[in-house]
Specification:
Number of strands: 9
Order of helices and strands: HEEEEEEEEE
Oligomer: single chain
Number of domains: 2
Strand content: 35-45%
Helix content: 10-25%
Shape: globular
Distance between the termini: 56 Å
Largest sheet: 9 strands, antiparallel
Amino acid sequence: MKTMKKSKVFIVVCCLLLTAVLICGCGAATTGDAPITSKWKLKEYTVNGKTTVIADQSLALRIISAKDYPSFQCKDGVNCTFTNLRKARKGTVTQEDGKYIITYDNTSVKMIGEIHGNTLTLVNDKGTLELIFETN
């Protein structure tokens, strides 16, 4: 009888420990921010201090097609493509101090990215261009 009671107590303790490990492990891994590999859609952009919100533009004011808007994609978390006016630049994403550093193959210009919730903000290293993307 004592052996059976000890076995039940042991099983209950093991289950509680396993549950605690799973809860703590999941809590540490989840930040609530979308991954860099999400499908990003341009929300707004700022060039030299002048901000344009895509949703606020009337059809008459849209000079360029949505296909020409800047886009960002990073399917594997390392290799990315930044496209603007249908011209693609291949780049590499690294993380540094909680920010994404994006370097491109064909230029020395870097972009710094931050994700908060479902919003990705990319800023060029000169601070003259800021792009804000959203994901679902």
